[in-house]
Backbone:
């Protein structure tokens, strides 16, 4: 019997073409190379299959972003601008094209989950997406990959109730903006407290508005928080909230910048923590979604720690049940 269950990884060497201006930018092509090399040489190599993404079609992207923004992003890239909206968001000629390819990874992954090819899909993509607002690039993010995937799952495959769990060190302001008034998409984010951390949103009091009241859960953690606090948040708050919501599909915004070695946050998670997160995510997916789970890479900037943490996460996800 296999030690780990199969995992489908959606990725493409083309993601390396999104050039963020050279060695000083933390969101660099070497991130995906580090993940690929770590996984290829480790215990998951035998159960990993790799599938190519497609470019997200415009009809799916505009479910989250107005066309005016897409024209502006495309024009900025093709005209040779170095960044869009803020110098953090470095771009190159290929960035609009590659952003569409990053958004499309989730769509390919969802199709595979719905066709029964896989239960566990991990999208190893860049640029990341959870800070991207509908009409504003932010925090290295150009298109909201997770948001576009959630709308696709609803509109293409009829899964109405979607849970998004985000344990990147930073609050996913863009995902919150997209869905804070939507009762059918439950966004849960665990992040470093916004008083101390980018982007300054994600307070407990932000809990949804209008018809979406109650389907937004922000769990800020104080700087220095380690494994114990996040695991307690998962068991005491996330697991019961998901059980009440009864999702038909689950997406994880998987960011690895809460690692103690990652200086993009003041959180202090261990590498092993991510294995525990994987076990919890897989258990919730099994309980509510017949095991189907889509994970999409967000942050993570310490190359070695991130690659090791991704491996731990996937090992936790794919551990045989009952083990
Ligand atoms: Zn982050």
Residues:
């Amino acid at each position: 019997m296999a030690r780990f269950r199969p995992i489908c990884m959606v990725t493409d060497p083309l993601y390396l073409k999104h050039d963020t201006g050279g060695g000083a930018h933390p969101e660099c092509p070497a991130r995906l190379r580090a993940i690929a090399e770590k996984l290829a040489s480790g215990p998951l190599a035998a159960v990993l299959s790799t599938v190519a993404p497609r470019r997200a079609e415009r009809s799916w992207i505009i479910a989250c972003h107005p066309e005016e923004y897409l024209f502006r992003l495309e024009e900025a890239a093709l005209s040779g601008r170095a960044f869009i909206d803020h110098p953090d968001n470095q771009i190159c000629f290929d960035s609009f094209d590659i952003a569409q390819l990053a958004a499309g990874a989730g769509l390919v992954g969802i199709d595979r989950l719905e066709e029964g090819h896989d239960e566990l899909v991990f999208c190893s993509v860049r640029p990341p997406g959870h800070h991207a607002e509908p009409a504003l690039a932010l925090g290295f993010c150009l298109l909201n990959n997770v948001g576009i995937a959630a709308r696709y799952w609803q509109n293409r495959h009829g899964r109405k109730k979607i849970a998004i769990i985000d344990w990147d060190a930073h609050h996913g302001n863009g995902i919150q903006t997209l869905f804070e008034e939507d009762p059918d998409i439950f966004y849960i984010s665990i992040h470093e407290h916004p008083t101390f951390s980018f982007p300054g949103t994600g307070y407990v009091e932000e809990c949804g508005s209008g018809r979406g009241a109650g389907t937004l859960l922000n769990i800020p953690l104080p700087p220095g928080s380690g494994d114990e606090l996040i695991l307690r948040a998962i068991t005491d708050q996330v697991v019961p909230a998901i059980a009440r919501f009864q999702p038909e599909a689950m997406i994880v915004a998987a960011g690895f910048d809460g690692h103690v070695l990652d200086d993009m946050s003041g959180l202090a998670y261990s590498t092993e923590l991510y294995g525990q997160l994987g076990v919890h995510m897989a258990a919730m997916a099994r309980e509510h979604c017949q095991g189907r789970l889509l994970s999409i890479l967000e942050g993570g900037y310490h190359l070695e720690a991130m690659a090791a943490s991704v491996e731990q996460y996937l090992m936790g996800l794919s551990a045989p049940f009952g083990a």
